[in-house]
Every structure is written in C-alpha cells, then in structure tokens.
Amino acid sequence: MNTKKPALDQDSSRTVGIWHTVAAYMIWGLLPLYWKVLKHIPSQEILAHRIFWSFVFLVIILSINRGWYDVYKTIKNRQKFVYIIFCAFVLSINWYLYIWAVNSGNVVETSMGYYINPLISVLFGVLILKERLTRWQIVSFFLATLGVLIITLQYNTLPWISLWLAVTFALYGLFKKLAGVNSLTGVMLETGIVAPLAFCYLMSKYIGGTDVIGKLSATTILLLVCSGIVTAAPLLFFANGVNRIPLSMVGFLQYLSPTLNLVLGVFVFKEEFTRMHLMSFGLIWCALAVYTLSQMKITQEMKIKVKST
Fold first, then answer.
1. Model-level pTM?
2. In which domain, by residue range, is 90 found?
3. Residue 155 CB partners (closer than 8 Å, separation 6+)
4. Which of 7, 129, 221, 274 shows its CA 20 to 30 Å from the CA of 178?
5. Number of folded domains in the chain?
6. Helix (H, G, I), strand (E, B) or coil at 128
C-alpha cells in the first residue's frame, strides 16, 4: 500500500503537468491572431499594457485565493526571489520581440524560433539540471536538431529574431524550474517586478501627449486590458506544468506552439513556406513521434512496476 501511493501520485502529477503545459502552448500558438488586431499600436506600448494588466489580473486572482503569505515567503527566500527577477526580465524581452515580430510580418520566423527553443531547453535540462534522456529520446533530439538546421540554413542572414526568442524563453523555463515557486505566486511576482516600469512608461507617454490610448476605440482599449488575461492564463498553466514534468519534456511539448504559429503564418497571414520548410518541419514531427512513443513506453513500464509491487 505505501509503495503504490507515491508512484500513483507521481504519475497523476505528471499527467496534470503535461495537460497544463499543452494548454499553455496552445494559447501561445494562437496569440498572433490577438496581436495582429492591435497592429496599429506601437509594440512597446502593447508590451507595457500587457505587463501592467497582467499584474492587475493576477493580483485579483491572488487575493481571491488568499495567497499573499506565499508571496511573502518567496520574497524572503533570497535565492528563489533572484530567480524570479531573472524570469521577469527575460520574459519581458521575449514578449517584446514576439509582439514586434508578429506585427512586422515575421510569424514564420517566430515559429522557427520556438522550434529552436526546445533544443535549448533540452540542452539546459541535461547539462544544468542533470536530466537523463533515453536512447530513443536522443534519436528524437537529433532528428529535431536536423530539422531546425535545415530551416535555419535556408536564411541567408542570421535569423536573430528566432535565436533571441529561443534563448530568452529557454532561460525563462530554466529559471522557473530552479525557482520552484507555485504558479500563481511566481507569475504574479514576475509581472509585479516589471509592472512599475510599464506603468511609468505609459504615464510618461500620456503626460508627454505621445500615447495612442486617447485615439483608440472602446473595443481596442478593452483588448489592451484583456491582454492581461490572455497573457496570465497560459503563464499560469506553464508555471504549474513546468514544475511537474522534466524540463526535457517541456522542451518537446513546446513544438505545439510554433506549429500553430506556422499554420497562422502560412494560411492566415500568407507568409512564404517553401519545400525546405516542409522538409525541416517533417523531421521535427518525426522527432516528436519518436519522443512521444518513448514517453508512452516509460509510462507503461512505471505502471507495470507499480502493479508488481
């Protein structure tokens, strides 16, 4: 009895983590549709609104859940709070680059960035967190690497948008893992750290008469306010998921988001998609199939061990 329960609890936690992470990546994958509606607003102003209203929304959620004591404990823990600060700033950089890239017609390149990102996450998981990959997971890693290399080499210049998006979000996942803070507390603190900067920026624009908010329709203003919800929701899912599953698995689940970005970029925004793109994405999906099958085998073996005990 005592040996079965922890294993079952661990398996259940892992399942919850997978679904929460999948939900986060699905929402992120569809976000270009949201930012395109706000295309007429400067990217830095969208970012400032996104940060500020995310913080407001999370403060309300935290108050409802009476989670302020957890915030206090996290701030008192210097090591955890330093990781949260790192999370806040790399996430802000990632947000700005993503909004700017989408609204400047580079959705396919953002897709490539988030295809590269899992490879960096896997690398961080193995080298820094000492996570181990099975033989088939290593095979899937190299298939995905080959696919990313093909699409990267197609560009005549260094795809800096893709690389910066990949590195900043991989760092965010790593710092989240190292902080080990519950999802609501962590995300509220992350947005809270940069929210004063966002608010000061918006006020300076308003006082200087250079903001665009006074020229916008009520619908657009509502969309800016709701950017806090569409931002905070996937962050909460991601933060809850990344603490329940290996970082290497987080890296491979990440492919869901760029796939949706790619579909939007090609079929909705009519961006270029060549045979080389198709070849590279085909290799990446093969890698996903191999990795998924290896995970199913591991899960099945764990269940057999639980039953045998």
1. 0.82
2. 4-308
3. none
4. 7
5. 1
6. coil
